[in-house]
Amino acid sequence: MNKTSKLLALLLSGSMMLSLAACGGGAATTPAPEESKAAEPAQSQAAEPAESQAAEPAEKSADDIPDNMTSADGKYEVAFITDVGQLKDKSFNQGTYDGVKLYADANGLSYKYYQPANGDQATDDDRYDAMKAAVDGGAKVVVCAGFMQEAALTRAATEFSDVPFVFIDGYPIGLDNVAGISFQEEQSGYLAGYAVVKEGFEKLGFTGGGGGTNPACCRFGYGFVQGANAAAAEMGVNVEINYSWEYGASFSASPELQTMANGWYTTGTEVIFACGGSMFQSIAAAASANDGFVVGVDVDQSFESDAVVTSAMKGLSSAVQWAVAKVYDGTFAEIGGQGTSLGAKDDAVGLPTATWSMENFSVSDYEAMFADIVSGKLTIDADYETGLEQDWSNLKLNIL
Length: 400
What we know:
Shape: globular
Number of strands: 13
Order of helices and strands: HHEHEHEHEEHEHEHEHEEHEEHHE
Largest sheet: 7 strands, mixed
Number of helices: 12
Strand order of the largest sheet: 12-10-9-8-6-7-13
Low-confidence stretches: 1-7, 9-57
Strand content: 15-25%
Mean pLDDT: 87
Helix content: 25-40%
């Protein structure tokens, strides 16, 4: 791992640990970024060595930073364009915006979020209008969340070619001023599926956002199935998974989704992986009503419900801070026009061991498996399009 990869891993790890105290793009194959020039201390606290960080006061939580601020000149330098769903979804949107707020606040920069018009029915024109509003409002960098931004982002980044755009859960779109940042969600999903089966759960569920078209959610789900099957094979047991994209197209909570989850729990499902932003609220409500359990997604969601056994996390906040810092330290060209895929080797995915409620799957077992993923000893398939509907050795997959 080179110097910059170690720095990125430190930043990602620190943010994921901070979340313990407090979905989607195409796969990219670009390795962790090459060594880049360190930012000045005033621009990027993450560039400070670990030794000096240890002597500093505790880092500020994103929850301590207001979502809205007033800029003295009416301009906002760091802009965020939300994905569908709520800003405060305790998941993808919020985790991404946390990175915007943390970087801006630490560096004395103005910031603002823009939600495309028409909510869950937003069009490409609505997304473009939000991006244009951000640029007109003084944005020096625009962070866009979610793979559905692609068409609007292509239009906006072409028109505003001097503005850098960070495409979270994204991929290269052929423009040098767009940096695609994706995650190896299949790794995090695998760890979650393996962990819950090792914990003793045999009847599982997966409910995903985006209607099955969101690559990040698809990778999460495929990894979850692989991990569950692997653990079941090791234990000599058979497990069953209900697997559905119903009622998740808008990543929102709904009575219909809660009713579906309630039906799963009442017919024997023990734990459901809630993979889709605010969908978590419906699954958690159904779990609480039926003494069931939930696996959270994107961030540590254990603070949202006692039903959460663990969460399949990815370092959204840290990845945003790292990418935005490159705009201000003059090294954005290293990631612009490319796709950067972040995984276990970058400490960018994983489970929150400090807050999980599992008793049979140990932290040491988890750490050993994580190390195997980092070293390449354990590889996890990301090709959900061809791999999901295979014949599983120890798993019955009910695709609904």
